[in-house]
Amino acid sequence: MSTLSFPGKVVALSGGIGGAKLALGLDRVLAPGQLTVIVNTGDDFRHFGLHISPDIDTLLYTLSGLDDPVRGWGRRDETWTFMRAMGELGREGWFQLGDGDLAIHVERTRRLAAGETLSHVTDFLRRQLGIGSVIVPMSDDPVATQVETDEGRLDFQHYFVRRHCEPRVTGIDFAGADEARLAPGAAAALADPDLALIVICPSNPYLSVDPVLAVPGLRAALRAGRAPVVAVSPIIAGQAVKGPTAKMMTELGRVPSAAEVARHYAGLIDLFVVDEADAGMDAHMDAGAGVRTVAAPTLMRTLDDRMNLARIVLGLAGVRA
Ligand code: FO1
């Protein structure tokens, strides 16, 4: 699909790695400014006195081609002198900040301390990295994803990185969500009269999408316009492509399946895109979750896979629920 053949604007909700793959596909098949990605900031935290926004940085690196394809986070061709030097000072090394990556954390922290909003800093960074799509945080106010586990309540990065997602999850909270205001750029994109499609990218529904949906007003904004809401399943044949989604679903007493994710989004979405491996469950899904499903190749290994899935999702814009 050429960039000119899709009329109207697109909004994508995304967390980190999985969501960023589809966001990249959409960015590549749409024209500059046609796509706005609303990004989860529940993973944000302060480390070494720096404000770290992991999911925003995954989007920045992925859409600018600076991402490290193996690690899935941080910059490619990274060096680690800073972390070695911090180790010599006795500082902990469980959260790795590469020398190149450090520039974004230092510059973001400086700008925030100077009074800029996270939205403004993010817009400066995406323009500086030559990204045509708009990237906005879900909120400029602090929201902290906290994971209730059998080891107690853990901040997100302690659960995800320090403890490698090993603790058993019994619940998830988004501290500060009730007081958080929808970021101006997110509200504007969702109210844009040219908005033709809303995409919930295949990020972890419980850890990465739910914090975005927890920002007051966001759910209503998703349903307010005419644009259909299409979600892409992060679960393929009962497995997560990457990360703790399936493990977490089991621990939360849910079946790790695409059908369960559809039920999680029921009432919010018009269409649910499942992998061809899960095509067989259409009837059950329609019955169970009241959500219409479409089967497509959703495993994104290459840039072409990302662009093909993006084209398929864009093609659903005309389908009314
Ligand atoms: N993930 C890791 O597993 N280990 C790390 O040391 C690590 C460092 C890191 C630094 C900056 C950044 O933006 C992300 C980083 N991540 C690391 C990934 C991060 O925990 C995840 O990207 C999200 O929080 C979950 O999507």
From TrEMBL:
<dbReference type="InterPro" id="IPR010115">
    <property type="entry name" value="FbiA/CofD"/>
</dbReference>
<keyword id="KW-0808">Transferase</keyword>
<dbReference type="InterPro" id="IPR002882">
    <property type="entry name" value="CofD"/>
</dbReference>
<dbReference type="GO" id="GO:0000287">
    <property type="term" value="F:magnesium ion binding"/>
</dbReference>
<protein>
    <submittedName>
        <fullName>LPPG:FO 2-phospho-L-lactate transferase</fullName>
        <ecNumber>2.7.8.28</ecNumber>
    </submittedName>
</protein>
<dbReference type="Pfam" id="PF01933">
    <property type="entry name" value="CofD"/>
</dbReference>
<keyword id="KW-0460">Magnesium</keyword>
<dbReference type="InterPro" id="IPR038136">
    <property type="entry name" value="CofD-like_dom_sf"/>
</dbReference>
<dbReference type="GO" id="GO:0043743">
    <property type="term" value="F:LPPG:FO 2-phospho-L-lactate transferase activity"/>
</dbReference>
